[in-house]
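Re: that backbone. Tokens:
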């Protein structure tokens, strides 16, 4: 029976047992002592709302359909009861019988990595009793079949990977007890329709199912019909509003002024802390990165073209505060304006993009010698869109469909989300700004909007979706108002900003199409080699990962060193406040000044700055003493 939809095309849901399982501690949930030990090690003081409601229901054996915002603890809400059930079964005398008892499906490889790490974390004190395999890892098919033949307790995969291994009989679900579909509202938009139907046929009856999602959509309803039997629906409306602690601002600007404002914001450090910049496509990533490089602003790129190992490492290092700026392409949310379609660009309805080589494979960009250094699995699995193909051909080329930035990935301590290119829907906007203000913290979302009369006035910086920016921002404002949120306009003092305009023009002229194409090819080649050729070395020497950086310079066609420094005459008379004011609410997550001891050490070093260095660097002819000692 089809459920009734409300005005937002969302199925109405009922809070099931919302007040029956109120719990303040994990120990009151009745979990195994080894799980409680792992939870304590992670400094989790008390369960979140979704955990306190879902875990007791899951331990009773009920199916769960939970709607809660990203970052609310949904992963632990299904992992802990699954581990608890496994440990109980093994304690009751079934240790000898090996079987895969849990299958966790996620839409992207990054999420698969996160889920695998979460399982390893919570099973740290019972690892001998729990074996896990991540099918999205880059290992040969023969090795993968061997791992599955040993019947791991938990298998983490994308629907495409799981369906493929079911088809070749490598994966057996005959004794499956738990099925999880995380980010359930995304799996259809990533093109996993056929894969999910194949998995549904292979799943035995009576399997406990967890559907975890940030929104309740018709896609989730379809999955509920495929896998669930009378699930307990947990709909946490109050906690689901992404961006609860986000201050939202909109800046009206011309197309080239996007680059001007971005330059001023990051060069003058108007934003303190870490920032994710969302752009429309992959070329846009490299245009902005090369533009920043002209001014010595370091950033790293994240897009579906990069190898999965590189993408995961970028996110991990960003969370460790190694990088401050990520330029991410949100390709799954950008409409294909050139063809006039309303479907998402990245929607691929077959698993071929995940397994079979393509004529436009990323390794074709490598020279013949470099090709041998890249593993075949990487070449066939990471199908990238080459930068130097014609536009018509590039539209048909396949990108990794198992990629997503605006949803699911756990970015930590993000101070600001900058919508350099406005998304094409209010839903995508909500997911983007959900990357900041997580776990009770505050954050800021700043969006550049191009007025209709200024669209296509600066051809070299024009982006197709900007034509509809005003329409989209109206929908965003209405959508946020329904949630009780306010999107405020913000006005930079353009008289002060204009002093930097000639520098912006110089930098943009250096970032030509050829420079973008070459930079994109070079970055892909480097990341492919880093991803596979050095993989074994990093497994043996994990500390060396700190030296593998992703924010190195790509070099534009013309390097202009003078742009890296901001002369005093360009600075506004009353400092940075003259440009941005005091009311914008930028969030600082780190100290901006050094402590007293560090400052004193630096001053002592500077005192000896004018002294000539002693030792072997000294000119021997100038220091030669011909006089004998004593004379």
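Recovered sequence:
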């Amino acid at each position: 029976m089809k459920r009734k939809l409300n005005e937002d095309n969302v199925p109405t849901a009922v809070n099931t047992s919302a007040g029956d399982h109120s719990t303040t501690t994990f120990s009151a949930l009745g979990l195994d002592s080894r799980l409680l030990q792992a939870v304590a090690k992670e400094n989790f003081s008390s369960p979140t709302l979704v955990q306190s409601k879902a875990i007791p229901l899951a331990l009773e054996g009920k199916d769960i359909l939970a709607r809660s915002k990203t970052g609310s603890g949904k992963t632990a809400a299904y992992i802990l009861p699954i581990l608890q059930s496994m440990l109980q079964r093994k304690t009751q005398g079934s240790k000898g019988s090996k079987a895969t008892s849990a299958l966790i499906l996620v839409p992207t490889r990054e999420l698969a990595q996160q889920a695998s790490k979460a399982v390893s974390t919570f099973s740290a004190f019972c690892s001998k009793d729990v074996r896990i395999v991540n099918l999205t890892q880059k290992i040969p098919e023969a090795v993968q079949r061997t791992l599955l033949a040993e019947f791991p307790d938990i298998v983490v995969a994308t629907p495409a990977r799981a369906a493929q291994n079911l088809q070749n009989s490598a994966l057996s679900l005959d004794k499956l007890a738990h099925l999880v579909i995380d980010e359930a509202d995304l799996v259809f938009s990533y093109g996993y329709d056929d894969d999910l139907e194949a998995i549904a046929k292979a799943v035995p009856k009576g399997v406990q199912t967890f559907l975890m999602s940030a929104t309740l959509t018709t896609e989730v309803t379809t999955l509920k019909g495929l896998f669930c039997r009378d699930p307990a629906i947990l709909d946490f409306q109050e906690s689901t509003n992404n961006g609860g602690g986000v201050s939202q601002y909109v800046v009206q600007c011309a197309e080239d002024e996007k680059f001007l404002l971005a330059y001023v914001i990051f060069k003058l450090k108007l934003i303190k802390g870490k920032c994710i910049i969302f752009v429309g496509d992959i070329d846009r990533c490299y245009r902005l990165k090369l533009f920043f490089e002209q001014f010595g602003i370091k950033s790293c790129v994240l897009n579906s073209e990069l190898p999965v190992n590189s993408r995961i490492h970028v996110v991990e290092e960003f969370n460790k505060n190694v990088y401050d700026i990520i330029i991410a392409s949100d390709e799954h949310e950008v409409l294909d304006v050139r063809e006039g379609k309303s479907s998402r660009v990245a929607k691929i309805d077959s698993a071929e993009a995940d397994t079979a080589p393509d004529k436009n494979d990323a390794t074709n960009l490598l020279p013949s010698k470099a090709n041998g250094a890249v593993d075949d699995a990487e070449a066939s699995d990471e199908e990238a869109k080459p930068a130097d193909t014609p536009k018509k051909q590039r539209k048909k080329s396949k990108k990794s469909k198992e990629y997503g930035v605006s949803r699911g990935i756990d970015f930590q301590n993000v101070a600001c989300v900058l919508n350099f290119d406005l998304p094409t829907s209010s839903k995508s906007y909500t997911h983007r700004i959900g990357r900041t203000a997580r776990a009770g913290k505050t954050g800021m979302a700043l969006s550049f909007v191009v007025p209709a009369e200024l669209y296509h006035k600066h051809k070299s910086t024009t982006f197709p979706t900007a034509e509809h920016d005003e329409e989209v921002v109206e929908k965003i404002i209405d959508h946020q108002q329904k949630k009780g949120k306010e999107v405020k306009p913000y006005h930079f003092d353009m008289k002060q900003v204009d002093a930097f305009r000639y520098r912006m023009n110089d930098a943009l002229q250096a970032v030509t199409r050829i420079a973008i194409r070459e930079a994109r090819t070079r970055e892909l080649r480097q990341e492919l080699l880093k991803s596979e050729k050095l993989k074994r070395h990093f497994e043996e020497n994990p500390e060396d990962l700190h030296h593998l950086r992703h924010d190195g310079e790509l070099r534009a066609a013309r390097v202009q060193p003078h742009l890296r420094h901001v002369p005093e005459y360009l600075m506004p008379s009353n400092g940075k406040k003259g440009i941005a004011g005091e009311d914008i609410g930028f969030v600082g997550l780190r100290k901006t000044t050094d402590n007293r001891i560090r400052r004193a050490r630096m001053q002592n070093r500077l005192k000896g700055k004018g002294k000539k260095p002693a030792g072997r660097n000294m000119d021997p002819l100038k220091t030669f003493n011909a006089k004998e000692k004593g004379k």
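The chain has a mean pLDDT of 75. The chain is about 35% helix and 10% strand.
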